[in-house]
């Protein structure tokens, strides 16, 4: 193999994992009357339906837990006090938002 072929092969091997990589896409926002809507998916466009979302208090206690719906959403009534919402995307693809970061 010539030098150019070696360089092309090395570049292809180094960039191949990035082409197949995906990460979590997760956001939550306030809806009327104390409701929160979260939207979850993956950066490659794949569905997160059935994956788990947890709502925890400031001490880490799970207050709510449920699956992402077929449309990629999860809705809940905001608990009182500070809380965190975590999308458990699997394979290290978790994402967490703090209640103070959730806006309209």
TrEMBL record:
Key words, A-Z: Signal
Signal peptide coordinates: 1-21
Domain of life: Bacteria
Protein known as: Carboxypeptidase regulatory-like domain-containing protein
Origin species: Pseudomonas cremoricolorata
Source organism phylogeny: Bacteria, Pseudomonadati, Pseudomonadota, Gammaproteobacteria, Pseudomonadales
């Amino acid at each position: 193999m010539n030098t150019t072929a070696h360089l092309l092969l090395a570049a292809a091997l180094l960039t191949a994992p990035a082409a197949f990589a995906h990460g979590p896409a997760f956001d939550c926002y306030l809806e009327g009357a104390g409701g929160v809507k979260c939207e979850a998916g993956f950066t490659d466009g794949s569905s997160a339906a059935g994956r788990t979302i947890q709502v925890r208090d400031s001490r880490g206690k799970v207050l709510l837990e449920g699956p992402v719906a077929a449309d990629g959403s999860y809705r809940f009534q905001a608990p009182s006090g500070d809380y965190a919402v975590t999308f458990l995307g699997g394979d290290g693809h978790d994402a967490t938002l703090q209640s103070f970061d959730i806006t309209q």
